[in-house]
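Protein kinase domain-containing protein structure dump, as promised
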Amino acid sequence: MNDDTSSLGRRIGRVAHVATTLSGAAIKTLGAKITGNSDAFPQVLTEALGKLKGPIMKVGQILAMVPGMLPDDVAESLMQLQSQAPSMGWPFVRRRMAFELGAEWPTKFTHFEKEASAAASLGQVHKAQLSSGEIVACKLQYPNMLSSIEGDLDQLRLLLGLYERTVPILDTVNIQHELKERLKEELDYRLELRNMERFRKLFGNTNLPVIVPKSFESYSTDRLLTMEWCDGADLMVVKNWSITLKRRVAENLFQAWYYPLYQHGVLHGDPHFGNYRITPEGQIIMLDFGCVREFPESFLAGVRKLYRALELNSASEANEAYEMWGFENLTSELVDALNIWAKFLYGPLLDDRIRPLVESPQEGKDAAKAVIQALKQSGKVRPPKEFVFMDRAAVGIGSAMIHLGVELNWHQLFQSLVESKK
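structure tokens r here:
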């Protein structure tokens, strides 16, 4: 009997915990609605997410990037937070490895560290050495992740339904569908292996300073992913490096995320601080390819068209661009509301000069507040599914740039990517 079939009690306990936590939030939300205090909802949602662990923390991080859903300080904390969890002990690791690679799995390794090097929401990583000599990272998925995700998302759906009735500016149906699809994809480690090899080949055909670890297919399964071990510093260390090196890191990070998108229509959908490392020379080591989003050329054409619309201050072109993104029932008031957030995200890319990404820490907060007020006037909007991870990437990478504290010509960086499209 494996870990996934032997822990029904743990699954029931988890569902009960999630249900209790979010039900409590729902009661508070209903109370806020009755008393007319709709502004209380973001804090209620924050309290609920703060009591939960595991996959739903990823959901919290994504919701933190949607303007107005959470208080500014909480959103910032969630975006920086790694979904850390206590690692599971050696008995679990031994059983999981035997189930995935067979009872003789230790013979495939000359060394396997019993203590996890990292533990996050979906699994944990162990450093090891293959019998052939390669130093590798073995990522093991925790038991019952599918049922955990389904239970978390079902409960979250109820809470977001209350959100829509309490703060009627966003229709979250597409957001929920996108979260469900992408989170379930993250459980398929064979898919992640294919994504990793795709990015490895993609960058291998360029001179860009990006490293994608090599995968080892014969040592990987649906719930075990074995890849090359790559050493590097995390962003919180890099922010203390010299300004010259930080500029190089910022340029490389921008290219690492946006070259695949604008040249090949594929986006690493989780630019979390824990999902990349930096070498002493400033190269970017990209990690965690479980969440990869493909975009059709028609959508990317809409992204470029919106850039042009903002450059020309053309409301009609902006309307066409949002239609290409998948927004529906557009009005002039809704386009104006969407443009507030678009101008905040595109602003540095339109400004042909060396500058910080944001002129002040208050800039993003002010933009989010303005969007909320404008949507209250224009009516509820249903963001298309594609918006979720485009926005997540923009805000996530933007947050990294702000931490690095560098000034660059973002316009020229962006132009070098979109103009070289063949």
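Residues 5-23, 25-36 have pLDDT under 50 and may be disordered.
lmk if u need the other ones
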